[in-house]
């Protein structure tokens, strides 16, 4: 897929499953469980052990799933992630030097920003989607206030999203979501089927299907 096709896929799916793990052995079972639950977009963060190899593994095992790299905080990490096969980059911060690294390889950037100034800087330098982060702490009223004058931008909200409030965020104008532990955390017995069930529940809330 080219950059525009990847962006369209992200906007259609609306849900990015964020994989941030300390125990590398759990990564593949979690990914498998997410895919079984219908998740089609994965983000493996740079502070996950072996994240570059895990991106390669996921690309090989699941060729029909979009696999991106998260917590990309600078252009060096961006270059490493792109070389590993990441199909999109997600940042927690505004570092505009990341954008040309991604775009030169035909992949989009979901750039983390919070204030109107940060959001506008990211947009002016070519960020494809704005990641409003941390959305949960600042709340829905804050998002609505931001969305008003910046309604032409695409916003994925990250932080504090769950199955109980995700529809409300959609009604408020969120274009998509990044969801981490609320989706990917297994129970105390490490049963992957718990993740599969949560994935199905989130997808049902977003799409009213499955």
Can you walk through the features of this model?
- The chain has helices at residues 3-13, 27-36, 51-61, 75-84, 98-103, 116-124, 135-147, 166-172, 181-184, 192-207, and strands at residues 15-19, 41-45, 66-70, 89-90, 109-113, 129-132, 155-158, 176-179.
- It has 210 residues and is α/β, with parallel strands linked by helices.
- It has one domain: TIM Barrel.
- The chain has an eight-stranded parallel sheet with strand order 3-2-1-8-7-6-5-4, sandwiched between helices.
- Helix 2 links the parallel strand 1 and strand 2 (41-45).
- The protein is globular and about 45 Å long.
- It holds the Pfam family Aldolase.
- Keywords: Carbohydrate metabolism, Lyase.
- It comes from Flagellimonas alvinocaridis.
Helix content class: 40-55%
Low-confidence stretches: none
Compute the average pLDDT.
95
How many extended strands? 8
The secondary-structure class comes to alpha/beta
CATH-level-2 architecture: Alpha-Beta Barrel
- Order of strands side by side in the largest beta sheet? 3-2-1-8-7-6-5-4
Question: According to CATH, what is the topology?
Answer: TIM Barrel
Strand content: 15-25%
Largest sheet: 8 strands, parallel
Number of domains: 1
CATH superfamily: Aldolase class I
> What is the tally of helical segments?
10
Radius of gyration: 16 Å
Assign an overall shape: globular
Q: What is shown here, in short?
A:
The chain has one domain (3-207): TIM Barrel.
